[in-house]
Amino acid sequence: MVHGSGADPHWFDYPSLLLYVLAPFEAWQSSPSVLTARVVIVVFGLAAVAAAWWLGRRAYGTVAGLVAAAAVAVETTHVAYSHMAVTDVPLTAGVAASLALMIAGRLEWAGLAAGLATGAKYPGVFLLAPLVVAAWGRWLRLAASVAVAAGAFLATSPYVLVHPHQAWSDATRVQRLARDGWLGFEHDHATPIAFVFRLWDGLGPALIVAGAGLVLALARRRRTDLILLAFVAVYFVDLLTIRAHFDRYVLPLVPPLGALAGRLRLLAPVTLLLLIVPLTWSIGDDVRLTRTDTRVVAHRWIVSHVPEDSTIAADSSTPPLTGYPVLPLQLPGPGRTTDPNRNVARLRARGVAYVIVTGAVADRVLAARERYPREVRFYEELRARARRLYYVQKGHGLTGPWLAVYRL
Q: Tell me: the pLDDT tens digits for 45-56?
């Protein structure tokens, strides 16, 4: 956008807000900088902690604010995705801020925050449910708040109006892929249980306290309770339609669940102690990130040993090979047709000289071999009919998936 392509993203898998926020910080870079983008996301992560504190304090008092902020600050998935230049943490910050404004009765501002949250990622639209609850009986203010939300979304993703058919196609395709499932989730528990486990993986035993707060809110059903319950219920019901059980999908639930956990003031010291568990998990994950990734080491070997004019077929999640002619091997998944290039004879006929595969894909395929027989056959063909030149796996100061380079 800032190096000559203009403001039109021509891409609508996600809305455009985050792209526009990142663009000014990329302006002084000679090429796109992932590090710069990640630093911006760190700021959103801190904003999510602050917004969770505000939400908890507005909902149930200062103690609840402290618990909600602590929950977001140490929640394992939130910490992990605060390292990544993706949309989930901005969405979480927007959800917490919008819910806090609803509880405060500042409905138009809540609509603005909801529109910005949706501008970060489409599921922000589910904030309309608690907005209706917050504005119940004040229909003119509700209409104004919804109009503000729509205006904020369109202001931050204006090209959905310029390319409505492409925007709808891209957005629905992403939703359809999530609902069909994804490679690696074939043997998961049923969807409700799977997503509860994702919440447990992020919050640990503090989730039990949040569950107790949820039950108490159902029993009391005060205005604040109903606003939080409306969002949690509508968002979780949407999760039930998804077979791709990514941990990041539960992130918007963390601030309201943190506030509900803080609702139980007498248990607040216990809840804060329980949050030490996800804190230790997050620290462990960050220690892992201080190690060198296997793909970095593999990239060094490839550029040193593979001629630049060699055509390479590569799995997803392998190192980017700028300057090489690369044939991407499409990621397998439920409902997807097998990539015809996952065939050794075909690759040879197309002049492919090297194949790069990784455990990030192969291990998941082999774990569900009954679902992906052709893909399994491809990896078996490589082992039998190609020469493995290089192999690296985690250990000895390395982290990440194993990676292998074959010569056809």
A: 999 999 999 999
Tokens describing residue 393:
């796996």
> What DSSP string runs through 2-25?
TTTT-S--S--SS-SHHHHHHHHH
**Which are the contacts of 53, defined by CB distance < 8 A and separation ≥ 6?**
65, 66, 68, 69
DSSP 246: -
Confidence of residue 5 (pLDDT cuts 50, 70, 90): confident
pTM above the 0.90 mark? yes
Q: What is the pLDDT of residue 2?
A: 87
Judging by beta carbons within 10 Å of its beta carbon (0-12, 13-18, 19+), is residue 397 exposed, middle or buried? exposed
Count of positions (residues) in the chain: 408
d(CA 87, CA 85): 7
Distance CA(213)–CA(216), nearest Å, equals: 5
Distance CA(137)–CA(132), nearest Å, equals: 9
Q: Write 23-31 long-range contacts (CB < 8 A, 24+).
A: 26/1, 26/2, 27/2
